[in-house]
């Protein structure tokens, strides 16, 4: 099951463990945390920070990015702080972006790989001059993150109970991830605060007796599925050291491993694709 569908795959495995023959989680996160939700959120923030660090390290050395300044980390943090004080206009999108918006858009660009990093360097340079249009996704007027994509997240994941809890989590996230801040999942859940309905499908551990799962993912995603695999003995992982979201459709190596898993239940332990 790919992307967010992996949440439903994990839910199905908890409800009907005897009906699971194979379960592949491709580009999916964890829905198994209990009593450790904050720790996993901070791990998510660290994963984002590590990925963004790839861009900053590249930017220090690559001539295509050198125009933003000799210290990309300082330049980036200064720009975000400026946007948090006074959101920067993005005329082509008809909006203003604050610091959180810039972080979200920039991280989305980093996810797409080095081909997009040149554009990100240009966007930062342009934003330094007061125009954040380079951060706007094609045709996008809204911030990259900040609201849930639908009703489902509000019923599937814990939500902050108060403004004080939100600020506390923000502070802890920014300590471990000074360049990227709060993780996507936490920010998205802010849109669920005040919902009249409770969380009806909260994360829970996997039951015993399940057959081995197979996790798969590119940068960062291959790490986020590990807590699920750790709860199901014999599970395996396919990791792609590169950009992207989900592997089955575009990565021939990963697809071959997953097909063998589906047909013959052959579980690769730590496959690099």
From TrEMBL:
It holds the Pfam family Abhydrolase_4. It comes from the Bacteria. InterPro entries: AB_hydrolase_fold, Pept_S33_TAP-like_C. Residues 189-273 form the Peptidase S33 tripeptidyl aminopeptidase-like C-terminal domain. This is Peptidase S33 tripeptidyl aminopeptidase-like C-terminal domain-containing protein.
């Amino acid at each position: 099951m790919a992307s967010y569908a992996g949440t439903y795959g994990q839910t199905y495995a908890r409800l009907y463990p005897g009906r699971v023959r194979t379960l592949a989680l491709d580009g999916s996160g964890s829905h198994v945390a209990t009593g450790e939700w904050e720790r996993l959120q901070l791990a998510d923030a660290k994963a984002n920070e590590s990925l963004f660090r790839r861009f900053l390290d590249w930017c220090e050395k690559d001539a295509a990015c050198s125009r933003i300044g000799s210290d990309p980390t300082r330049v980036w943090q200064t720009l975000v702080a400026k946007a948090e004080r006074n959101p920067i206009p993005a005329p082509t999108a008809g909006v203003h972006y604050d610091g959180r918006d810039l972080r979200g858009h920039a991280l989305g660009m980093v996810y797409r790989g080095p081909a997009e990093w040149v554009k990100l360097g240009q966007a930062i340079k342009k934003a330094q001059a007061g125009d954040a249009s380079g951060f706007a996704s094609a045709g996008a007027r809204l911030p990259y993150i900040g609201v849930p994509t639908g009703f489902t997240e509000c019923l599937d994941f814990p939500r902050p109970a108060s403004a004080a809890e939100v600020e506390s989590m923000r502070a802890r996230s920014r300590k471990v991830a000074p360049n990227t801040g709060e993780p996507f999942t936490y920010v998205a859940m802010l849109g669920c605060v005040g919902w009249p309905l409770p969380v009806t499908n909260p994360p829970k551990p996997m039951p015993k007796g399940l057959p081995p799962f197979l996790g798969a993912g590119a940068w960062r995603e291959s790490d986020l599925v590990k807590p699920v695999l750790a709860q199901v003995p014999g599970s395996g992982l396919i990791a792609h050291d590169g950009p992207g979201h989900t592997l089955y459709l575009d990565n021939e190596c990963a697809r071959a491993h997953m097909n063998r898993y589906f047909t013959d239940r052959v579980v690769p332990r730590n496959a690099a694709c």
